[in-house]
Specification:
Layout: H1 2-19, E1 27-35, E2 44-45, H2 57-60, E3 64-68, E4 72-77, E5 85-87, E6 93-99, E7 105-120, E8 132-136, E9 138-146, E10 149-156, E11 165-169, E12 177-192, E13 202-211, E14 224-225, E15 231-240, E16 244-247, H3 264-267, E17 275-286, E18 290-296, E19 299-300, E20 303-307, E21 313-321, E22 326-328, E23 331-332, E24 336-337, E25 346-350, E26 354-366, H4 367-374, E27 385-390
Parallel strand pairs: 1-15
Antiparallel strand pairs: 1-2, 3-12, 4-12, 4-14, 5-11, 6-7, 6-13, 7-10, 7-12, 8-11, 9-10, 13-15, 16-17, 17-26, 18-25, 18-27, 19-20, 20-21, 21-24, 21-26, 22-23, 22-25
Length: about 400
């Protein structure tokens, strides 16, 4: 019995040792932006800035930057351009992002516009990055020496389809040899996003995977060792939160339908009114899509009903007019009839941000139904109509 217990304990410990061995983690970074319903109709970049902005802050300014966790050691010799200090950046990409809740997708355009590193190795006076000749697809943006470090920033001439960039010590002889450690890699980038007012609210996510190494998306030429990994995943996270509210004037919870100019003309022997109506104004602020539908106390087909105490009933038509910045199926919204029920709801799309702009609800009983109502003169027709504006798409 004692031997069995001792054997089991040893086996369990060995299993734990195996399970707790460290596992290499893939390289990964996240680019994030948010839209909180501002009038600018632009995303705000919420990505932490790259380390080189501490030194080149005036260069970063309002540009989009991020650190990339790519490190390596590069042996530089005077031979092929790939043996010099060589960087080939990835081509531009289209990246799809998807709404966590609805699955709605939008496409981003992403490209790298500059690359920077903090390097160490030979003295700055013989560095292939400070006193150097830069050729290929990059131009010199910034450089600085802070021995034993050399920091540089190269701008990519053609971000959509970059050409390799390579740099050499300007006095290099045929026997020139240097070993450079590269770290604190950062990039500037362009990220073209859809107009947020065309996006439903929520969190959108997507990612792009880049290979690293000879012939890869990130290519650092020959003589590279101690490369941190052979792939990099860039995650994209967009947070869309729309501003949406209505402002109805006091008393808008009650709409009294009357003929134009009131009832006086009919009471003095005039013709049957062409219609009974009431327009209720409101102010609308919206920075994204929304749906609208109605609910009826008394249903009459696709219309709501107004009813007397005796049970006589007439239909009332309800229509909606919205500001010019909001459209339905690509057209302005002017006296658009509203359907009944959530399933039939109409979706309205923003073509720009709309802040405190006027709209109207239109209630109307047509002439034929007015004639029937006059047969019950002295009666009161009432009914409740609920208009639902739904921004939770």
């Amino acid at each position: 019995m004692t031997r069995f217990k001792q054997f089991w304990s040893t086996y369990w410990l060995a299993g734990m040792l195996v399970l707790n061995m460290p596992v290499a983690e893939a390289l990964e970074v996240t680019i994030s932006a948010q839209y909180l319903g501002g009038a600018s109709a632009q995303f705000e970049n919420t990505t932490p800035p790259a380390a080189f902005c501490d030194r080149f802050g005036n260069y970063c300014g309002n540009r989009e930057v991020i650190d990339l966790p790519i490190t390596y050691v590069k042996e530089v010799i005077e031979a092929d351009i790939r043996d010099q200090y060589y960087i080939k950046m990835p081509s531009g990409r289209k990246v799809d992002v998807f709404n966590d809740q609805t699955g709605e997708s939008h496409t981003l355009d992403f490209e790298f516009t500059a690359v920077g590193q903090r390097t160490s190795g030979p003295s700055w006076t013989q560095s292939p990055l400070y006193n150097s000749d830069l050729s290929g697809g990059c131009t010199r943006g910034r450089s600085a020496a802070n021995p034993p470090w050399v920091l540089f920033l190269w701008e990519v001439k053609n971000p959509r389809s970059p050409v390799a960039c390579y740099s050499r010590y300007y006095r290099a002889q045929p026997d020139y040899h240097a070993v450079v450690s590269a770290g604190e890699m950062g990039v500037l980038y362009n990220l073209t996003m859809p107009a947020p007012y065309r996006m439903k609210p929520g969190i959108y996510r997507g990612s792009a995977i880049y290979t690293i190494g000879p012939g890869g998306d990130f290519d650092f030429g020959n003589g590279v060792t101690q490369l941190s990994d052979n792939s990099l995943t860039i995650n994209f996270v967009l947070d869309v939160q729309h501003a949406f509210f209505f402002d109805f004037p006091p008393g808008s919870d009650r709409a009294v339908l009357e003929p134009r100019g009131g009832w006086q003309n009919w009471l003095t022997g005039g013709a049957v009114p062409q219609r009974l109506y009431r327009d209720l104004p409101f102010k609308l602020s919206s920075t994204g899509p929304f749906k609208v539908y109605k609910l009826c106390q008394y249903d009459m087909g696709m219309l709501c009903g107004l009813r007397t105490d005796d049970g006589d009933q007439v239909p009332v038509q309800l229509a909606l007019s919205l500001p010019a910045g909001i459209q339905y199926q690509g057209r302005p919204v002017e006296r658009l009839p509203l359907p009944t029920g959530r399933v039939q709801a109409l979706q309205f799309d923003a073509v720009t941000t709309t802040l405190n702009r006027p709209g109207q609800l239109h209630f109307e009983v047509g002439k034929d139904d007015v004639r029937g109502m006059l047969a019950h003169a002295g009666s009161t027709y009432t009914g409740q109509v609920t208009v639902v504006f739904d921004a939770e798409l």
